[in-house]
Amino acid sequence: MSGPKYKRVLLKISGEVLAGGQGFGIDPKTINALAEEIHQAISLGVEVAIVIGGGNIFRGLAGASAGMERASADYMGMLATILNALALQSILEQNGVCTRVQSAIEMKQLSEAYIRRKAIRHLEKKRVVIFAAGTGNPYFSTDTAAALRAMEIGAEVILKGTKVDGVFDRDPAKDVTAKKYDEITFFEVIEQRLAVMDFTAVTLCMDNNLPLIVFNVKEKGNIQKILSGEKIGTLIQKAR
Questions:
Q1: CA 170/CA 186 separation, integer angstroms
Q2: Cα(139)–Cα(161) distance, rounded to whole angstroms?
Q3: Intra-chain end-to-end CA distance of the chain, in Å
Q4: Do residues 163 and 216 make contact, with C-beta atoms less than 8 angstroms apart?
Q5: Per-residue pLDDT at 101 exceeds 80
Q6: Domain ranges within the chain, ordered by starting residue
Q7: How many CB atoms lie within 10 A of CB 229?
Q8: Beta-bridge mates of residue 181
Q9: Are the C-beta atoms of 228 and 5 separated by less than 8 Å?
């Protein structure tokens, strides 16, 4: 059997995925299934870094739209990502996976401060590194944090785990005739204003030629299939 297609990847998980079917908070069944998928990826010899959103607990934009000051709302959203990161770390450690949480906001009692060289060293030692608190700055999403961290650590690809099977021309939850793309360019994503990642993150990936695979993380085995070279979800790259 040949080795994995990628040596180092960054897995981006939305907070909503962790909520499972309950819509809010952290669903134990879902986070355990995710931890098992990550464990399998590590067993292939792949170095895995993770960025998790916080939308299952608090979304900065939602707080701002409800009248909160935007920067404060965004910081609250960053704290939500730390809760998710610590929960995932706990489950991974119970599954025998060595992990480190690195936060863009210093919290000595809970996590390490983000240091690029230290994160890379952890990955080289086959530890899963979970990046929390986004970029540490308001007005930037965890999508942008994922693109930024992926480039900083030298990841070969971003794996964006969602609740759908890839990128569609329309919302498949609202239109059953929505067409799924197997491959698409970053420029086409921007041109068609497809809801993949925020445009800051898409532009960062495009400018730095960092491919992105959007896939259904809730389907068992998908991460391992991607790492083994199977075509799962939608591949987004600079040029076909």
A1: 17
A2: 22
A3: 28
A4: yes
A5: yes
A6: 8-163
A7: 12
A8: 167
A9: yes
Sequential DSSP letters for 189-206: HHHHT-SSS-HHHHHHHH
Q: Which residues pair with 162 in a beta bridge?
A: 216
Q: Each residue of 30-85: pLDDT tens digit? A: 999 999 999 999 999 999 999 999 989 987 667 677 788 999 999 999 999 999 99
Integer CA distances (angstroms), 200 to 77, 87, 137, 144, in order? 18, 28, 14, 6
**Separation between Cα atoms, residue 91 and residue 106, nearest integer Å:** 23
**CATH homologous superfamily for the domain 8-163:** Acetylglutamate kinase-like (3.40.1160.10)
pTM of the predicted model as reported, rounded to 2 decimal places: 0.93
Select from 189, 215, 192, 217 the least CA-distant residue to 204. 189
| pLDDT of residue 153 exceeding 60 | yes
Token digits of residue 189: 């994503």
Q: Cα(86)–Cα(154) distance, rounded to whole angstroms?
A: 24
